[in-house]
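=== RUN LOG ===
request id: a7f3
mode: sequence -> structure
chains: 1
length: 237
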Amino acid sequence: MVRRVSTIHFIGGEKGGVGKSVVARLLAQYCIDTELPFVALDADGSNGTLLRYYRDYSRPVDLQRFESADEILLLASEEPNRRVVVDLPAQAERALWTWIGESGVLQMASELGVQVVFWHVMGEGKESLLALERLLSHPAEGVRYCVVRNFGRGKDFSLFDKSEARQLLEQRGATVIDLADLHGPAMQKIDRFDASFWAAAHNPLVGAESITRMERQRIGIWLRGAYEQIGQLGTSL
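=== RESULT ===
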């Protein structure tokens, strides 16, 4: 029998406001709806988005404390076929790579049969591209990448599409997916009621007097589209 490896998903983008936490929530919801075993770790001490929306599946992690950050790898290694979804805050690069480098995380993950996927959520601006270039400058052996072009944070990604970073991603076998823009008022209502994406789309008791039937339909269509994109990761999930 072939042992199915566990996977650590680092959901980042370095720059604030590009939609990292939305993508982390989507991945958590995807795991729930497709019945994939997972645990979510929220590294954003100021916002705690996963702890807010998916509290039954989430726990905090502090990247500044190695004994706390070590839980990421421990959780991935203790159970086969588990996904560990880590929602990274803005400006987490230094703390994350200090822990990875000084603890030999990538080497240990390889020895334990744990797959590591770095997600980079980006808007259309140059800052997102520069952050991606910094990510790609770190050790890459044995890791995989998923870049999310978030159309809720821009419409023109030609700067990225024509970049050397895009070419390097292709050489490394990365996955590039698109996240469609969800109508602003619908997302605002989801946030107002602290609702999971599934509940906002399908549970009429959530925001009963606020979220309209058409908005629930719109959220459901957006969610299915996001799932199709996430599914492109294939074995990287």
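=== NOTES ===
The mean pLDDT is 93.
DSSP finds eleven helices and seven strands in the chain.
=== END ===
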